[in-house]
Amino acid sequence: QVQLLESGGGLVQAGGSLRLSCAASGRTFSSYAMGWFRQAPGQEREFVASISRSDTIYYEDSVKGRFTISRDNAKNTVYLQMNSLKPEDTAVYYCAAADYGSSWYISKALRDRTYNYWGQGTQVTVSS
Length: 128
Description:
Elements: E1 4-7, E2 10-13, E3 18-24, E4 33-39, E5 46-51, E6 57-59, E7 67-72, E8 77-82, E9 91-98, H1 106-109, E10 117-118, E11 122-127
Parallel strand pairs: 2-11
Antiparallel strand pairs: 1-3, 3-8, 4-5, 4-9, 5-6, 7-8, 9-10, 9-11
């Protein structure tokens, strides 16, 4: 069982930055792929970024070059550094963990049903 707790959300002006953190419980954090998803009001949850246990990274196209995902296995934490934020980035951001097999690839990473554990989410609001 893995418990995930996000932090770092808030209100920021367009062009600003935020860093989200997701702290995980358990001793097997390093074996999981970690992902960030977001859900805006009235919209479906969408993939943002993921990082595998071997540091293979994928991003959704709209965040490439602006967001950076990273992990610190010693701290059982995954981060999402968000720069050049836009109003359309406004959403609840969720952290997720995937206990996957031997292969991690993009079609697996962007499916929310791939992930076994989810955090409660943290609100990010970008004002124009």
